[in-house]
Amino acid sequence: MVGLSTDVLVPGLETPISLNLGGMSNLEYTGYALNTLLQKKQLVVSDWLSKFAIICIATLAGLVVFHYSSISVVLAAIVALSLVYILAAWFVFYYFGYYPPIVEVVLAQGLSFVFVLRSKVRQRERRCS
């Protein structure tokens, strides 16, 4: 890797592993990319079938928790489940290099939360009337 060092006009690339405060140069970035490929530690991204399976499992787990919780607990449950999933996704990414679908699962849990909450409100209104 022969090339010029950092250009004064280029601010540098901001990455989680930036070694200096101004970001890393294109040369450093290319070096890390080559090192990743040579060590065979590329990121593994989900295919559509595994994404679908993960989303279904997380949504079903959320629906079970929402179904057996009261209305006041459902909001705390959705936040807790989302945080647990984000922490689990970070753990899997950090230790195994696998990038799970984070946004899709949190969005699916949020939509299931809306549907379950509407259902619970309707049930409560039927009981009261």
Q: Could you walk me through the main structural features you see in this protein, from its secondary elements to its overall organization?
A:
The protein is mainly alpha-helical. It contains 4 helices and 2 strands; from the N terminus they run H-E-H-H-E-H. The chain has a two-stranded parallel ribbon. The mean pLDDT is 79.
Could you give a short description of this structure?
With 129 residues, this protein is mainly alpha-helical.
Task: Detail the topology: elements first, then pairings.
Elements: H1 26-38, E1 44-45, H2 48-67, H3 71-96, E2 98-99, H4 102-128
Parallel strand pairs: 1-2
How large is the share of residues in beta strands?
under 5%
Q: What form results from the Cα inertia axes? A: elongated
Which stretches of 5+ consecutive residues score pLDDT under 50?
Answer: none
The tally of helices reads 4
The total domain count is 2
Number of strands: 2
Radius of gyration over all CA atoms, rounded: 22 Å
Q: In percent, how helical is the residue content?
A: 55-70%
First-residue to last-residue Cα separation: 76 Å
Reading side by side through the largest sheet, how are the strands ordered? 1-2
Topology as H/E string?
Answer: HEHHEH
The largest sheet is: 2 strands, parallel
**Structural class from helices and strands?**
mainly alpha
Write down the overall mean pLDDT: 79
Q: What oligomeric state do the depicted chains represent?
A: single chain
